[in-house]
Structure formats: structure tokens, C-alpha cells
């Protein structure tokens, strides 16, 4: 059994299914990327796994326990997002001291080193931090807690490019030092894909796939060429995405199977890999058209 398992997990919110019959299993000491469009159900899933919300139906196990309101899960997991609230009376240093009291594996030295590196002031109040600095402070909590289950829900909101790079590097370095089970939700798969071992993709509350990152990288291929030739070649193949890229050229993404690609190349079709980030966008495209249609 995985460290985190869900079986036919559903959650209704506002009368709709925010999560719909989701089943998957995440092994110990892995990094999983959770991706999906706005409203796909990422936060809902992560809050259920952290024990903050109760599922509506189905089964969920984290560290072999039912997570909702479970103290064992609470001290061995941490949920980081940009909405964390702390008492107004606590300084940033006080918050670190409180976190150390709560989390059994807290690494004070790491917390202090990150705190200094990112130039926080011990007496500063959480409420006075800018958006990016707030996310950076939360990241310190997430890393220094060294929880068996560490969940980052869009952790880089507001961070500038340099800080985001530092965060990804710190995450990887610390994970290699102290492996644990990390889930990170993001709208920037291209930025985090090198960190990930697996990707879990949601669409409208349903699981589209849960795959090793290498399988995601090889999931599809892109074909570009004269429209009639490309369209003829992809007949009877599983088309994921199709668009016009010139007067008489098309770009078509198909599911990758052992095709004779040399035959396609002989017909003047160029074959290219499809990045995980683009693949997830194509697989979760809106059914009712594209942004260009709004301006017609
Ligand atoms: N406050 C709310 N009340 C009722 N339903 C809600 C509320 N917030 C979200 N939902 C529903 O839950 C669904 C899943 O929302 P959730 O926040 O989990 O998505 P998400 O993938 O994290 O989105 P985002 O990328 O925008 O943060 C939404 O599509 C919406 O239908």
C-alpha cells in the first residue's frame, strides 16, 4: 500500500463535485506534481490529504490513517499555501519557535539558515510581509518541518524568478538529504518538472492520469506539415490536439505509439516531442473553443 492512497474519493462543494471518484496511490519518499486548470480540484484534494477537510465519499489513507482531524497525521504532515494565518501578536521568529514545538522533526538550523539567506527580520510580523516574502516564509516552514508528508499548494505565488529558482533548488537539496513524500501543486509544470518523479493531472475533479514523469515526457508526439498530408497521416490515431500554424500547415499532437515515424518524415512531416506542460494544457483544453473565438 502507498503512503497516500485514495479510492473513489469524491468531495462535493457548493452542490457540485469538486472531486469525482478519484483513485491513486503515492509511494513513500517521492515527489509528485499535482496539475490541472483553475477549479480542477487540486486544493480540495490537498486539503483532504492534509486532514483539513473531510471527503464526501470514498476512502483516503495517509500514513495508514484516515487524515481528517487526525493528530498523528497533523504532526507528520504540513500543508503550505498562501492563505496561512498566524496570530498578529507573533513575530516571524515566534512563529518558527511555535512550529518547532509542534513538528517533531523540525530542523532549527535549516530554518535559521533559510531565514537569514532570504533576509527576514526576526521581529517582523507575518501580516506585514509582501506577497512574495510571505510565500518565501511559508516555504521555510514547509522545508524545516521535515514532515513525512509535505504538501505545497501553489507555493511560489508572488515569488520573483530568482526566489522561485532558489526554492526549487532548496526543495531538491533538502529532499535528497532527508527524503520524504512531497506533493506540489503548480500552474508552472515547466518550472518544476525536473524535480518530479510523478505527475497527477486533474480535470473537472477527475483524474486524467497519474504517471511517472518519463512516461509523461513520452506520452505524445507533435507533427507539423502540410494540412492535408498531416491530417491524412493521423487518421485512426488518437488525436490530442490540432491547430493551424500557417496558411496551409497544421500542428497535430497524437498519443505516442510505436509508429513508423520515418514514413511520416518521408512525407515532409516534422516530428517533435511534446513537453509535459504543453501536454497537460492540451489534455485539459476547454471543450467549447479557444480564446480566439471570443474575438470573432
Ligand atoms: N468556496 C467555494 N464554495 C463552493 N464551491 C467551491 C468553492 N471554492 C471552490 N469550489 C468548487 O470546487 C472546485 C475545485 O476547486 P479547487 O479550489 O479545489 O480547484 P483548484 O484546482 O485548486 O483551482 P485553482 O487552480 O484555481 O486554485 C471548483 O471548480 C468549484 O466548483
UniProtKB/TrEMBL annotation:
Gene3D superfamilies hit by this protein: P-loop containing nucleotide triphosphate hydrolases
Pfam families reported for this sequence: ABC_tran
One MF term in the entry's GO annotations: ATP hydrolysis activity
Residue ranges occupied by any ABC transporter domain in the UniProt entry: 4-229
Alphabetized UniProt keyword annotations: ATP-binding, Nucleotide-binding
PANTHER family linked to this entry: ABC TRANSPORTER, ATP-BINDING PROTEIN, SKFA PEPTIDE EXPORT ATP-BINDING PROTEIN SKFE
Protein name: ABC transporter ATP-binding protein
Record organism: Virgibacillus salarius
